[in-house]
Amino acid sequence: MELKEIKELIKLVSEAGVSEVEVERGDFKIAIKKVDGRTMLVNQTPQYIAQAPAQVMSSAPAEVAVVTETPAASSSNFITVKSPMIGTYYKSLSPDKAPFLQVGDEIKPGQVLCIVEAMKLFNEIESEISGRIIKILVENASPVEYDQPLFLVEPK
Hints:
By secondary structure, this protein is α+β, with helices and mostly antiparallel strands. The protein has helices at residues 3-16, 53-59, 71-76; strands at 20-25, 28-35, 38-43, 66-68, 79-82, 87-90, 106-107, 112-118, 121-126, 131-136, 143-144, 149-155. It has two domains: 1-44; 46-155, CATH 2.40.50.100. Helix content is 17%, strand content 39%. The chain has a seven-stranded mixed sheet with strand order 1-2-3-9-8-6-11, covered by helices on one side. A five-stranded antiparallel sheet has the order 4-5-12-10-7, with no helix packed on it. The longest helix is centred in the N-terminal third of the chain and has 14 residues, at 3-16. The chain is globular.
């Protein structure tokens, strides 16, 4: 799906008053949801990327958390979940809501880990692995770079 088509879907959700739009083309599936007045882009295409940083840059869609094993993490059996885009990291939907996760929480594939805001779009970052959160590596409302480590996870 082209960026232009995604922008048109976002505009449709904003203008038409619908709360959710889902599009599926082959193995690509995308959902755009309006939650608490915010438009969120959620990619539901499953992806698990491990050990190949060169492939990560070319094949990871922007809304899926990039999961890689770092050499340091490999020896201690931890997986680093990295930001799939540049933006602002948020640990919850809004300041008065509970965070999506905390250190020690169990996670599973498809579970929302955080939100990264990019260009006024709030992108839900979903887990692609099962495990337990060992460490949260960024502060709430802080800027993040592409491929920046967000979480350290002990896989199941």
